[in-house]
Amino acid sequence: MDNELIQFEKDDKHCVLFVQGDVDLSNSSQLRKTILSALKTSPEVAVHLSQVSYIDSSGIAALVEGLQYANSHDKRFYLKNLSPHVQSIIELARLDQVFTIET
């Protein structure tokens, strides 16, 4: 795992992913793998996005795939502290109505 893109904290019940920098086609598969791995081992996964300066459609797709996995496996998956760029993309795609978003 590339420590510059994703760091995490984990205990028995929660896993918190801290994503930073640009999330694009070059690294979105890493985000996807990390989210799915966290969901397989934790009942609750939060993705902090306050330090994400850019996210493209492949990054959004990784988040959506995490949500779909969580929903189909009775897990809790939510986004936290969206950066202004991420928030605008999420709202533009109307995914703010799909994701649970906390501040």
From TrEMBL:
Limits of the STAS domain: 16-103
An example molecular function term from Gene Ontology annotations: anti-sigma factor antagonist activity
PROSITE patterns, A to Z: STAS
Signal peptide: none
One Pfam family, short name: STAS_2
Domain of life: Bacteria
Similarity field: Belongs to the anti-sigma-factor antagonist family.
NCBIfam families (UniProt xref): ant_ant_sig (TIGR00377)
Name used for this protein in its record: Anti-sigma factor antagonist
Organism whose genome encodes this protein: Marinicella pacifica
Lineage start: Bacteria, Pseudomonadati, Pseudomonadota, Gammaproteobacteria, Lysobacterales
